[in-house]
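Title: Prediction job returns without error message
Component: structure pipeline
Severity: low
Priority: P3
Assignee: unassigned

Description:
Job completed but the reporter wants confirmation the result is attached to the right record. Sequence as submitted:
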Amino acid sequence: MTYDHILTERRGDVLVLTLNRPDRLNAAPPGLFVELRDAIGDLGGARAVLVTGAGRAFCSGADVGGGALGSDDPGNTTYRALTESYNPTMAAFADLAVPVVSAVRGPAAGIGCSLALAADFCVASETAYFLQAFVNIGLVPDGGASWMLPRLIGKARATEMMMLGERVPAAKALEWGMIHKVVADDALDAEAFALAGRLAAGPTVALGLMKRGLNHAFENGYEAAMLREAEHQRAARGTADSMEGGMAFLQKRKAEFRGK
């Protein structure tokens, strides 16, 4: 399917989604997030998703400068954009049953920062940076940032990002434990795709269940987490991939998972 704001490409078992507004550093109007949600609504058998940006940016935030959120009632317009476009897409990525990798070069700011960090693995180039700039324009973080950042980097560092509104370079983001890996600029695309391909070759059902367990980990007590693990283990144990993994272990060979 052809979209106005994103490019989609199937590369083997990986669905590659590219934010495609390089002239605006991939600033995202509400429609871009609607397109992302539509693109992951039917994976067509894809077993991993890679999200990246065209040009020299991942995403510079919501497209407020382009007038996408302008109106006589900006507060309610922004509220509707978040609740009807941005937030449902973020939730859809969180609920996606396959792994997601984000490849970040240049700025990942505002809602772009949230999108990048919502991936299961965030790979950044050496020149990438992460920014919660809302305080600089009298606004507050959105896209789940106020939930996500304290869990990733702790309350003190999340407060620093939100209230000071300063860039966090890729190296510092890695040091803080906010992202998975930093690579050279010219290696970003290959490294991120290789990771997505590795995940796509894994036991997809089990990986999806791991995602759900991790997403609920901070909301449940110890006993509830163990019960959820038992339920997920029951589901994983009934898959063909589980049987293949067991046989490969016994036969001392590499397992060939098929995502079933």
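Comment from assignee: result matches the submitted record. The chain has two domains: 6-200, 204-251.
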